Amino acid sequence: MIPVVPHPPLTGAYRRWSTGAQLSRLPQAMAPLAFTLLTTATTGSHRLGGVMMAVFAGAEILGAVPCGRLLDRVGPARGLRLALVAAAAGLAGLASAAVLGAPTPVLVAVVVLPGLVGGGIAGGFRTLLAQTVPPAALPRAVAVDLTVVECVLVAGPVLASAMVWVHPVLPVPVMAASCLLAVLFVPRSAVERTPRPATRTALRLPVRAVLGWLATAYAIGHVLATVEVAPVPLVQRIGADPEVALVVPVVLCVASVVGGAAYAWRGLALRRSRQAQALVLLGAYAVGAGVLLVSTGWPALLAGTAVIGLATAPLGTIASTELQRAVPAERWTESFSLVFVVQGAGFVVGSLAVGILPTPAAIVLGVLAVVLAGTVLAHRPRPVRDAERLPT
C-alpha cells in the first residue's frame, strides 16, 4: 500500500496564480470554435476560421521561445503583464475588424499578435508558479494545475458556442477580456523581483539534460492528438456511428482529471525515481495506444483511451518539474516556452498523421514517438540535485 505522505498545503497565493493561469488559457481553448463561428457569420466561410486558427497556432510556435527569452530578461511578472495586454489588444483588434467588415487578409493578419505572445504567456505563468509555491509543494501544484486545465479545455468551446447565440463576434472580445482579467492575478510576490543577470553558465540550455523531457513532451502531444483528432475514425473502426464519437474525448478528459488528482494525492509518495515513473507512464501510453490499435469493440476502445488519459497528467507533471530542475533559473521561462513548442509540434504532427494516414498507421506512429521518448529518457545524464535548481 502506498503511504500517504503529507504535502504542504496549496495556499491562497497558489489559488491566485491558478486563477490567472486559467484565465490566460481560456482564450486558447475558445479560439478554434470562436474563429470558425466568427468567420462563418461574417464571411460565410468556415474554412477561413480554420486558416486563422492555423496562423494563430503557427505564430504561437514561432514566438514561444523568443517571447519566453524576453520574459526572462525583463522579469517574468512584468513581461507577463505586457504579453497579456498585447494578446488582449490583438483579440480586440480582431473583433473590431470583423465588425467593420475587414477583408480576409486583415482578419488573418490580426491573429498573429496574440499568437506570437501565447507561448510566452504559458511559459511565464509556469515560471511564476515556481516562485509562488515552496519547492516541496511544486510537484503537487503542477499536478493539480494539469487537472484543472482539462476543465478549462472543456469549458472554452462550450462558452464560445453559448455566446454565439448573443452575437457571433462576442466570443472574441470575451477572449480579450479574459486576458486583461488575467493581468490582475499575476502573483504580486514576484512582480518586484529583479531578474538575475544571465551568467556564463546560463547562456546555453543543458540540452543533454533536458532532451529526454522534451521528447516526453513531444510524445504527450503526439499521442493526445491521435486520440483527440481521430474520435470519428476510431469509433467507425468498431462499427459505431460518427455521432457517438464525442464519447472518446470525454473519456480521455475524465481519465486525465482522475489521473492528475490521484497523482497529486498519492502518486507523489512513490519512492521510485521520477525518471523511472516517467518510463512506466510512457509504457502506459504505449499500451493504451496499442489497445486502440487492436480494438474491435467499445470495451477495448474506451480502455485504451482511459489508460492514456490516466497517464497524461502525472507524465506532464514529472516532465515539467524535472525539466525545471535541469535548467538554470535564468532560463526557466524560455525552457517552459520551449516545452510548449515541442508539445505543440507533437500535436501538429499527430494531427497531420490522422489526416493523411490510415488510422492504424497514425496510431503506430504515435507508439513510435513514445518508444523514442522512452529511449532518449532512459539514456539521459544523471539529474542534478533538487536543491541545485529549485528555488528556496
Notes on the protein architecture:
With 392 residues, the protein is mainly alpha-helical. The chain folds into 2 domains: 175 residues, MFS general substrate transporter like domains (Growth Hormone, Chain: A, Up-down Bundle), CATH 1.20.1250; 184 residues, MFS general substrate transporter like domains (Growth Hormone, Chain: A, Up-down Bundle), CATH 1.20.1250. The N terminus and C terminus are likely disordered.
Query: Residue share in helices?
Result: over 70%
What's the CATH class label of the largest domain?
A: Mainly Alpha
CATH architecture type of the largest domain: Up-down Bundle
**CATH topology assignment of the largest domain:** Growth Hormone, Chain: A
Distance between the termini: 32 Å
What features would you highlight for this structure?
mainly alpha, 2 domains, disordered N terminus, about 400 residues, disordered C terminus, Growth Hormone, Chain: A, about 75% helix
List the helices and strands and how they pair.
Layout (H helix, E strand, L loop, with lengths): L11 H32 L2 H29 L1 H24 L4 H7 L1 H21 L5 H26 L7 H13 L23 H22 L2 H7 L9 H19 L8 H21 L3 H29 L5 H25 L2 H20 L7 H4 L3
Q: How would you briefly describe this protein structure?
A:
This protein is mostly helical and 392 residues long. The chain is built from 15 helices and no strands. It has two domains: 12-186, MFS general substrate transporter like domains (Growth Hormone, Chain: A); 201-384, Up-down Bundle (Growth Hormone, Chain: A), CATH 1.20.1250.20.
